Amino acid sequence: MLKKFKTGFNRLFGSKNDGQLEFKCRNVKVKGYEYLFVRAVVPDIPEILDIERAVYKGQTPWNFENFEAQIREQERTLYLVVRHNDEMVGFAGCDMKYATYEAHITEYCRFASLSKLRIGSDAD
């Protein structure tokens, strides 16, 4: 089981380029809908905070500076945004621990309107 995890981990996150965790943009089709997964960049943060406000009833558990620090730390963290028709519909972040092959999910959020499609639920 651990061998399978290590293989999958390395396939997704194993290559680093000049100290930066590499991630190539991906188009993914889920239940007939097209989504684009891309690495988050600092200009995405206002939209990320909008999603947090929508999910957490006007609150933002993390502020701009928290997200900025995580997004800029590209050697061990990976923050992705998910877009549908050029609108951000969700995001996720994780912190990699290469020595132990661990990935700690630090943030995961999606618009509640996607719940009716069962996207981002435990039923996926």
Task: Describe the 3D structure.
The protein is an alpha+beta fold. It has three helices and seven strands. The strands form two sheets. Strands 3-4-5-6-7 form a five-stranded antiparallel beta sheet. The radius of gyration is 15 Å and the shape is globular. The two termini are 21 Å apart. The mean pLDDT is 80.
Portion in helices: 25-40%
Q: What kind of sheet is the major sheet?
A: 5 strands, antiparallel
Q: Tell me the fraction of residues in β-strands, as a range.
A: 35-45%
Class from helix and strand fractions: alpha+beta
**pLDDT under 50 segments (min length 5)?**
none
Reconstruct the topology from this structure.
Blueprint: H1 2-13, E1 16-17, E2 20-21, E3 26-30, E4 33-39, H2 45-55, H3 64-72, E5 77-84, E6 87-97, E7 102-110
Antiparallel strand pairs: 1-2, 3-4, 4-5, 5-6, 6-7
